[in-house]
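Internal QA ticket QA-208
Title: Verify multi-chain structure generation after dependency bump
Assignee: T.L.

Test input:
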Amino acid sequence: MTKQIFLGCLSSTHYKDTCESGIKIIQSIDSEYKVFDDVPCCGALSYHITQEEKMKQHVEYVNKWFQEHNINKITTICAGCYQYLTKYYPMFLGKDFKVEVEHLLQFLARSDNLSKLNINYEGKKLRFCYHDACHLRNAVVPIIEEPRKILNSIKNVELQEMENNKLNSICCGSGGGVYSIFKENSDYNTKTIFDQMRRGKILLTGCPFCYTAFQRVKKENNIRKPVLKIEDFLMKLINGVDPLK
Amino acid sequence: MSEKANELYEKVQGKVDTLKNEDSVYAKFADIWRLACLGKYRSYDLRYLYEDTSREYIEKYKPAMIEAKENFVENIDEYVEKCINVMEKTNKFRVHYAKTNEEAKEVFMKELGDNKLIYKSKSLEAKDTGIMEILKENNIEIKETDLGDVLCQLLEYEYPSFTLGPGIQFTEEEIVAKIKEKYGIDLEPDAEKIVAYYRKNYRPELLNEVKVSLTSANAISAHDGSIVLIENEGNISILTRATEKHIVVAGISKIVPDEFDALMVAKIQERITNVDGAYISFISAPSSTSDIQGKRVLGMYGAKEVVVILVDDWRTKAAKENLFYKDMLKCISCKSCDFVCTASRAFGNVYASKYGIGGINIVRDYIHNGIEAAVKDGLFLCTGCENCTNWCPSGVDLAEMMKNIKKIATEKGLCPPPLKKYQEKILDDKNPFKS
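Actual output:
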């Protein structure tokens, strides 16, 4: 049986560095994890815009791919894949879906893994914010406390909770494919998220869709604060690189 | 059908584009709505007028609220029958059960008789059933009494608005200018002065001249047939007392098992909107006295007649056939889904139907007018963030309903073309982001 790091098509196409960080972190803790080329899209963006029958066919196709590659466990770095694989795959496939799915944040938050991660950050005290992505907070098994557990375990970094956090977080405006048709939603709401950072110096997220929206709005509005995927942030601390740069 | 999809997509796009123009109607609404939402979003967890927070209060009563609503939906026939019985026999209401909106309209016009003027409070149901339209068609003068609606009438505002505060987008200057133009009266552009003007001039009319009034109901108790209404202005108190005939038009989904559940609905609404619900009325009979020889005479100081029109239309069908919008039966119209909706904040009243702003009113439009109407209202502006579902005090899964409507739209070929391309890339290329 095989353990797979599921990168998701957005990250693997556009965010190669993030993929590298995710792979390095996971493999440093559990070397049995493998990465595959040409992984099919889980279908996360298309549930609400696809006929039931076509969707089922796609889900079956992906499941077959898992079976052919003998995969029984997945750790994904994508929030969308996590929500989709844990919600819709069992719904469409029932017991035929035999893959255990977890998100990187769940993987890292387990005490044994967290002690293996063992990040020492010796720099100046660092205040940052974490954005709860809808895909993570709304999942069948919600991921809300895990990132907090991981980040709070690191010395000299301090999580500044934003006004709208956890279940109450503001959507970045990318969900439901809205980002591909109207950017006005993310224009407005992402700015509100940045406004809520206050003393936080870095904005972290576990979702590549949020990451995309944040990066665009940051650039268009000349916002200086860095936006990082959580695995990139951890990687920088591990490598002793200043995450503010 | 893709031509139609394009046409609808362009229509929505056209409206979204007007948001960039600061002076457009849509931009003006969005401005004030965004501010309101930010405040509201925060105030959920702030102590407002009470010791606890509104959020704590809602969480405390949410399970009981959901249970009451689900109990009604499961036993819809029994509760409706029980409710009608007690209303007729004990409460001396005249009750009409309207199977369809058409029947409701017909019955309403009969009840109106020769009257050419009707005073009304805020009522979603009057819009839902199409009663507002038929009144207009028959040249019946409709006088709104909620100040927000009065201002919308004054300024002839016909765009979708926020049901709980319609007219919130008008500036004091706009309002006094219009009063000057229409009534020739000079007023200072000041909220207090404007309110004083209506108190002085409109209140006597409401106290003395109302023959027929129309209200909805916030909740109806099946156990004792009480109509429960919540308000902060006092207009409902006046309209339901200082009138000859009080007509209530309400969907059967307003029924809850008993009067304590009904009070819970009212209290939850009050706390969600964080407005002082100054008055809660329980109306259980027409006004009457038995002070002369113990003889009961109807119509002492309050309404002589109370007429209740209970509208079914889609409701029993949704409950029995387990339709995907069955959850709408649980909605108490508290509007908490609007405050927390990211699409609503970004798009204001572009993301709206003729029934009002937000996703819940798009579902309404779908139920009454079909899928094209819903797509035109901006169905695909919903990101599916599920904030609405997370916050609903009565367990309505609005996010799931929106997903279902999107699926229906896709099956009818009405999915926005750029999204469709995405979907094809996923299904055919197995990667939507590869160029």
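Spot checks passed. Chain B touches chain A at residues 9, 13, 16, 19, 34, 38, 41-42, 44-45, 340, 342-343, 345-347, 380-387, 390, 403, 406-407, 410-411, 415-416, 418-420, 422-423, 426-427, 430-434 (CB under 8 Å).
Status: verified.
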